[in-house]
Amino acid sequence: SDISLHLNQLKYLSPPPSEDQQCSRSFMDVKAASNGVSTIEDRILRITGYYGYYPGYSSHQREEASENRTENINPDNNVKTRCQTCTSAFFKIFWGFLVILSVSSSWVGTTQIVKVTYKNFHCPFFMTWFSTNWNIMFFPVYYSGHLASAQEKQTLIKKIRECSRIFGEEGLTLRLFLKRTAPFSILWTLTNYLYLLALKKLTATDVSALFCCNKAFVFLLSWIVLKDKFMGVRIVAAIMAITGIVMMAYADGFHGDSIIGVALVVGSASTSALYKVLFKMFLGSANFGEAAYFISTLGFFNLIFISSAPVILYFTKVEYWSSFSALPWGYLCGVAGLWLAFNILVNVGVVLTYPILISIGTVLSVPGNAAVDLMKHEVIFSMVRLTATTIICIGFLLMLLPEEWDEITLRFINRLKEKKNEDQTEDTTESSVHTRSRSRANGTVSIPLA
């Protein structure tokens, strides 16, 4: 009763509404009835006689204001987001070019220094063992970069515990150290040892080109062992790699050092592919810190358990040198340092840029070695060797195509066709308008057939 009395008082105190206001009020009352009970703010506006109002007026005003605000903010945010995306893509491409040059130059430098070292010192296993020991420095280099760049710095013990999870939740134990590190260390040593042996038989260009076949071997093993997706283009690339291997062996008539050198490089590429497939199978995808920790453990395993092999080779005079002072320490340290730099760049490059650029840097070592062989060693390449090298490099590049390359290509072709049709339509429209205007000026009307 009190509420009704207050409503009657407000009704008599407020000025009488006009006809337009009455129509508006009746329309809004119907709208309010259809929409249900209004909010408290809507009731107050109705009671106080605000007739230019409809239920939900305040809420609609707030929604419109928020929409206007988002419209005013969203363009700036979109522009900022696009600028940040473009900037990050630019920096990734910039770092990618630097990584490409660094990867290719480090691999070319390693191969060429080995060739120079062989003139006075031919001990490939000792060189492999000495270079692998430098892998111990991989994790200290990574931790130094972490201290220099990370905002939240971690202690060395905490970082080691975090990165050792690549071996499991328990971390690195003696059993896991022997079980997981031993096979990978053996494959690592075999890959490098066979590669260095092949450099004694073939030129640096041939060896680096044949080693690019490891990409095809990785695909075949992943398809068979890991049940990866079948891709016809990669089968074609694998066939091209095998064709290049046969042509390279045929270049000297399937005899002499050529066929032995080709077999050694193919063995090196095979063990490298097996190493990568087993790493993916047992250890999965590791981040940069875990990869650095794992490679450092390979260096420790090499130092502890494989150090006996060079000693045995020395006393059996398979790899013999007169004294330690006669060793070419400068060349040995150069090979080991460039090899370590190559492994670091390959792992760092995945973080800084696109992984495909690292693979391109690897295949660019082939023309790099060819340029050095031509200018410094005056190597003459036959047509068969050049053709085989080209086929292997093309196969390597085909391996870099993504899994959805066919869909991406079809989409790109369809867009080009649509754009071409739009351009033809615009040209037809402009020509028809021009024809009509000219015919009107001459006093005639013509209808274009197009």
Write the layout of secondary structure elements.
Layout: H1 2-13, H2 19-35, H3 40-47, H4 57-117, H5 124-133, H6 138-149, H7 156-163, H8 174-201, H9 204-211, H10 214-224, H11 232-250, H12 257-282, H13 288-305, H14 308-315, H15 329-352, H16 355-363, H17 365-377, H18 383-399, H19 405-442
Helix pairs in contact: 4-15, 4-16, 4-17, 5-8, 5-15, 6-13, 8-12, 8-13, 9-12, 9-17, 9-18, 10-11, 10-12, 11-12, 11-18
Uncertain regions spanning at least 5 consecutive residues: 3-14, 19-38, 47-73, 438-450
How would you spell out the order of helices and strands?
Answer: HHHHHHHHHHHHHHHHHHH
Mean pLDDT: 78
Report, as a whole number of angstroms, the end-to-end distance: 80 Å
* Estimated helix fraction: over 70%
Overall morphology = globular
Radius of gyration: 37 Å
Number of domains as seen in the coordinates: 1
The largest sheet is:
none
| Secondary structural class | mainly alpha
Count the beta strands: 0
* DSSP strand content: under 5%
Number of helices: 19
Detailed description of the structure:
It is a single chain. 77% of the residues lie in helices and 0% in strands. The protein has 450 residues and is mostly helical. It has one domain. The N terminus and C terminus are likely disordered.
Summarize the structure.
With 450 residues, this protein is mostly helical.
Task: Give me some keywords for this one.
mainly alpha, Solute_c_fam_35_mem_F3/F4, 77% helix, EmrE-like, single chain, membrane, disordered C terminus, transmembrane, transmembrane transporter activity, 450 residues, globular, disordered N terminus
